[in-house]
Amino acid sequence: MPPGERTDQKGRTRQDLLQAAARLIKTGVVPTLADVAAEARVSRATAYRYYSNEKALLQDAALDHAAPTPEQLFAGDASRNPIERLLKADAALRKVVWENQNQFRLMLARVLEEAAKANGFPAEPVRQNRRTRLIEAALSPARDRFDDAVYRRLCAALALVLGTESMVVFRDVLQMDDPEAAEVERWAVEVLTRAALAESEQSRGRAKAGAGKPEKRRHK
Does domain 1-66 have CATH number 1.10.10? Predict the structure, then answer.
């Protein structure tokens, strides 16, 4: 299986565990990892590769339930404007992160500890990566406006702006309040997206110009 497919499969397994935990919690029980593994139809060993204990799993399940899925966020949204859609994704994710700061800080501390133990290369993904799915969904209607390489860079750059880490930088490093941090975050999203659109347009222009030039004949 190619590396990209393996990563996707691991992400789906983690999501299956979180959804299984959420279903059990709704029944009024506090599930064990064994309970969640059975509900998700995976082995206990698999569940323990993703979560070392019930507390970590239940914490992630609660946060996962609070964050909107791309399908929920963009249901009925006919906009094709990438900036409008990205700002919508940013606002939704910011609301979840900033309203649950303590829980996200604890999650971040845990995953950093796990990554440190694994020398930065954990065997299984330690993060759910909600932000990338939201970013890609936001850009989806305008995907053809972006050059492939520029699109990948834009998604990566936006992943630095959205999410828990940016909240930590704004609050702890820069000591900004919520409104000021939100304004900077919106500005960064707009600037990055406009720059990516402009770069993609220039790239297409160069490609068209190159295609229009007649091929030079070689003289023997």
Answer: yes
